[in-house]
From TrEMBL:
SMART domains: ARM
Annotated GO biological process: epithelial cilium movement involved in extracellular fluid movement; filopodium assembly; neuron projection extension; sperm axoneme assembly
Coiled-coil residue spans: none
Pfam name, any one: Arm
Protein name from the UniProt record: Sperm associated antigen 6
GO terms, molecular function: microtubule binding
Organism: Lepisosteus oculatus
Signal peptide stretch: none
Gene Ontology CC terms: acrosomal vesicle; axoneme; extracellular region; microtubule cytoskeleton; sperm principal piece
Length: 509
């Protein structure tokens, strides 16, 4: 009888535990219950049940915790600070495959909610290592959850990514990239991308594991989601240094990647353009390689076919190419890049995209008078001036528009494109505009005549410059190009002077 009583007590205890976790898991599905559960200390009550001897109780407790952690940051933080997360990971390594799959999903929820704080607990090795055990032990299915967790870990900070690398994850991720399952390839490529982005050293670790060759083999894979991650990973590797960018290029990704600039998936296109930008920014040689492969023309077509933030990496890529040398800037001009960028400057409503476009124009037009003319004749200068002077423009847009104007004006000798700026320019820009006229007019008689008939000389006389200033010197230089009576004729008040002379004139009878 005594033994039966003991067994009955344990059965009742198990039943109570089972009922408790099932009820909590059910209550956690309704948002109106969350605050009450939190105030009742539900986290500390669920924690010991994660290591319960009954698998069903463990699984239900994990399900309840996952639902709670997904609800808000405070509960996710409670999972981390309450030492619940290590127990979840421990269970992930110790239990059966079904349980691991379930807990893997819960870990992903908690990591996604509150990774930055979990970095501070000093237990990242404990959290990551069991996931890697599962990654090696269960290459089909479970590794999806394990690598999603690794990807979330790697995404947030350098320290977290370093912990993933130190735990030996990178070679395993490279192995998973080679698996036949597309979903596994996607997640592994995503994790490699997240690891690579934080520092050159982490990117080098990914490269040393042989990732580039395997990623390069998938650039034409028909799966769009996989291609997104592949191009993202290659971009994150390329961005850090010339050596890393060259290693990516040596994988013979060009010209194959250019076909993906026309991919139906916008994120694929954007990530390809980003990859080209990260490669082009480093050296003239790398930019020339892209030009030789037809990359500039392809990028110009690309920014003509899309809108908004998808355009941005293509715009910046053209700017980086043009910045390196006169010849590369001319390649952008010859490929009709200036008219397309002018369209972007007009169409795009977002200041950061207009700022990038203004910067690109500055890189194209700053080299020689020929380069500056190509920008000027596209009627870009008044638009840049307007963006610089508009009070609604962001500070970054104003700065970039001003710098672009100055760099183009210092080379521009195409006076018809400069004349409109005489009427609306700020004093800062006006100095550069007038300065260019003072350089060109003394050597070009046709330009001097046009300057008079277009009203330019008259406008020059209306400018009020400080005596002895650079602007006044430029004005004097321009006036010295004309007979004194012509300058007086177009000077303010000259018509009144003539009328006074008429009034005071005594006719000869």
């Amino acid at each position: 009888m005594k033994e039966e009583t003991v067994i009955c007590v344990f059965e009742q205890y198990q039943k109570a535990r089972t009922q408790f976790v099932q009820t909590i898991a059910e209550l956690a599905t309704r948002p109106q219950n969350i605050e009450t559960l939190q105030n009742a200390g539900v986290m500390s009550l669920l924690r010991p049940l994660l290591l319960d001897v009954v698998p069903t109780i463990q699984q239900t407790a994990a399900l309840a915790l996952g639902r709670l952690a997904n609800y808000n940051d405070d509960l996710a933080e409670a999972v981390v600070k309450g030492d619940i997360l290590p127990q979840l990971v421990y269970s992930l390594a110790e239990q059966n495959r079904f349980k691991q799959l379930l807990l893997g999903a819960q870990l992903r929820a908690v990591w996604a909610q509150h990774l930055p704080s979990s970095c501070q607990t000093g237990q990242m090795g404990l959290r990551i290592s069991p996931g890697l055990v599962c990654l090696a032990s269960y290459p089909f299915g479970l590794s999806d959850h394990s690598m999603v967790n690794l990807s979330y870990v790697s995404y947030h900070a350098f320290k977290l990514s370093q912990a993933v690398v130190d735990a030996g994850a990178v070679p395993l991720l490279v192995l998973c990239v080679q698996e036949p399952e597309v979903a596994l390839k996607r997640i592994a490529a995503s994790a490699l991308s997240d690891i690579s982005k934080h520092s050159p050293e982490l990117a080098q670790t990914v490269v040393d594991a042989g990732a580039i060759a395997h990623l390069a083999q998938m650039i034409l894979n028909p799966d769009a989601k996989l291609k997104r991650q592949v191009f993202s990973a290659l971009s994150q590797i390329s961005k850090h240094s010339v050596d890393l960018a060259e290693m990516v290029v040596e994988a013979e990704i060009f010209p194959a990647v250019l076909t993906c600039l026309k991919d139906p998936d916008e994120y694929v296109k954007k990530n390809v353009a980003t990859l080209m930008r990260e490669i082009a920014k480093h050296t003239p040689e790398l930019s020339q390689l892209i030009v030789n492969a037809g990359g500039v023309a392809a990028a110009i077509d690309y920014i003509g076919d899309c809108l908004g933030s998808v355009r941005l990496p293509g715009i910046m890529m053209l700017g980086y190419v043009a910045a390196h040398s006169e010849n590369l800037a001319m390649a952008v001009i010859v490929s009709k890049g200036v008219p397309q960028l002018a369209i972007c400057l007009t169409e795009e409503p977002e200041d950061h995209i207009k700022a990038a476009t203004a910067w690109a124009f500055g890189q194209i037009g700053r080299h020689t008078p020929e380069h500056a003319r190509a920008v000027a004749v596209a009627n870009v200068l008044p638009k840049l001036l307007s963006l610089y002077m508009e009070t609604d423009s962001s500070e970054d847009l104003q700065v970039k528009a001003k710098k672009a104007l100055k760099s183009i004006l210092q080379k521009c000798t195409h006076l018809p494109a400069l004349e409109p700026l005489l009427h609306d320019a700020s004093p800062n820009i006006l100095k550069h505009v007038v300065g260019q006229f003072s350089k060109v007019l003394p050597h070009d008689s046709k330009a001097r005549r046009l300057f008079v008939t277009s009203g330019g000389l008259k406008k020059i006389q209306e400018i009020k410059a400080e005596p002895g200033s650079a602007l006044q010197e430029y004005i004097n230089s321009i006036n010295n190009c004309y007979p004194e009576e012509i300058v007086r004729y177009y000077s303010p008040g000259y018509s009144e002077t003539l009328l006074e002379r008429v009034e005071n004139y005594q006719p000869v009878m």
